[in-house]
Automatic annotation (TrEMBL), chains A, B, C, D:
Catalytic activity: Release of an N-terminal pyroglutamyl group from a polypeptide, the second amino acid generally not being Pro
Record gene name: pcp
HAMAP family: Pyrrolid_peptidase
Protein name: Pyrrolidone-carboxylate peptidase
Subunit annotation: Homotetramer.
């Protein structure tokens, strides 16, 4: 049976929950036509997150890996298209590390593209009535670190695997007491990740669609 | 059995759905401890909406009326505190009328307060993990028209009844193709309206809480 | 010579500057065709602000009073249309008072309308290339308190005077270190207030224009 | 005399003005300690914009090139850190071309870093009271195209030159009639670009500062 590995981070930045992990955990062991899902929690920690990811990839031998992270303040699902070779932390990670202006891989390229069909994923999520778009920046914190690291692992070690990253908004309860901040229900996040997994298995190459960004 | 009357508008402004009515319709005939719910759709039309409301109040003889409307662009449930005596339409209503700078009632006061426990409602919704706040403006379109008219009916004809108004965000599907716009799931809206009905029946007077707005 | 009295608040809420006062102070003693400007700083304090305002009105005997306050987070000039009879403070004022759910005037109406030509003011500001709109809520803090109190003074004591209120955004420097927050240059604020003063002196009644709000 | 070349685009996307060019044009021929400024307008057209840029670089022989573009909807100056090898247009360019998913350079890397001191520039602009931040995406339209092309020219042909890109918000007048949208005055934009030019000439390497992005 083919395998899709989903990862979600533990809570960070003072939050007590991480919607990415909450949503990913709901999909543990789910079976779909032609593949089944394995899930792993990864720590919001530079380096360690990549060791956990690599270990999981060795165990699961996935055909597709989708990392999922929280993007507080967004209103839709962000299907990340590009990871950059940069650690530049605005806040400390969960081990207290705060790297500034460091490359993730000394000998890696400046950026890697997602090898998932990002436009097909975004379109599929929207067809389910859930807002989604292709994003051109996953930031410079642990989310981008995991995404870049995943793609470097695929480029160098797991060459048959494909991989990418999704950002999800806050859960509604996380926005209480904050200034007006968008959120998304857990059910919609779970559904969106499910659609991303299915589209990743179905599409060999991406669809052509207008998803570009002006700035 | 005591009665709570909920109203929701039909779609307007080019939308094919109105989340207010979608959510209200889900609560048709629901029974809670001590009261049951009746629902009515009202047209997004100045004047006519108030005739439909008055007819419904004559039929149902409600203890509490809660009008619900769509506030596209908001990220949380807005518990409206004040209705103003002003029709000033940005777009035509569903009958093509677009009144500018007209009073709703020639002899009514400049404003009416909600007689629902607005802070208790907002607090109750937030306790359920759904973002909510007290709002000081319901606009100057048909939502404010219905809210002001409801309060005028209560002040002049249905004096034992209490009433107020809630604004709900777009549904997720409505935000697709718009620039980043917040939304809320139908389930959370339904739950929030349910909590508003229960709090309205339970609280004689409102709670003291910090809900004010700086501007 | 006819007189326009402009008021601006001192800084509050942890800010070291208040753009309202900065802008108003620039207009001290300015003369225009048919009127001259007097300016006063008012403290961001419930009650005291109104005593300072009344004293200034006794001294200046203005034909028009325009209160100006800071509305952090707005992107345009808000020409306030309605003041409500409610003190409901989210934060303490500059004397440490934080009233909740109190009327401003025990025997005043629920709301007062601005007696300035709000739509003509907004249109005039926009013609100068500065974004502006008519707003239906001045909040429930000291800005609304001053606006309501001003209108109550006009209704009861200074019956020949006309008055209203403007909210201005943050200055650019105030937004540094905040999440993305809109701002406006001091020059544009000064120009907008000047236009508001001139339009208030020129227009006996307001223009008809589409300025209503949906919610 | 050392030279800084500034470029700004012509209007696009239905706008009649482009704040980038308006601001850049104000700096034509300015002299600062140790360098002078040359300015060029570039068309908002894929490919052609790069031909115009290369021609200007051949003529001017600049030490530093700073491209400037409009990022409608932003509230601050964005100092772009990374350009990606992707043309993916949301709207047609000014020649009617709308490339989807095409590389800018067939043999270029996936991304280029700005070789300007991006954190020093952002800090310097903020010290002048103007909001600014380091951005990790210049989009996938002509702005990113010019930025990537500039860096490719530097990498392959003008190796002694350094270069990068700034995005500026809408001008206030451009936001009129739009939903609440942030803007910035022309004076602040001009000042920010001036600071960027001076910092680019002064700093050999960037400062260390917390400017990273979570997502």
């Amino acid at each position: 049976m083919k395998k899709v590995l989903l990862t979600g981070f533990d809570p960070f930045g003072g939050e007590t929950t991480n919607p990415a992990w909450e949503a990913v955990a709901r999909l543990r062991g789910r079976r779909y036509e032609g593949f089944e899902v394995e899930v792993r929690q990864v720590p919001t920690v530079f380096r360690t997150s990549l060791r956990v990811l690599r270990q999981a990839m060795l165990e699961v031998r996935p055909n597709v890996v989708i990392g999922v992270g929280q993007a507080g303040g967004r209103s839709d699902i962000a299907v990340e298209r590009v990871a950059i070779n940069l650690d530049d932390a605005r806040i400390p990670d969960n081990d207290g590390e705060q790297p500034l202006d460091l490359p993730i891989s000394e000998d890696g390229p400046a950026a890697y593209w997602s090898t998932l069909p990002v436009k097909a994923i975004a379109a599929g999520i929207r067809e389910a009535g859930i807002p989604a778009s292709v994003s051109l920046s996953a930031g410079s914190f642990v989310c981008n670190h995991l995404f870049y690291g995943l793609r470097h692992l695929i480029a160098t070690e797991f060459t048959a695997c494909r991989g990418g990253f999704l950002h999800v908004p806050f859960l509604p309860a996380q926005t209480i007491g904050r200034a007006p901040t968008p959120s998304m229900s857990l059910e919609h996040m779970v559904n969106a990740i499910e659609i991303a997994a299915m589209a990743s298995m179905r599409y060999g190459k991406d669809i052509a669609a207008i998803e570009g960004r002006l700035d």
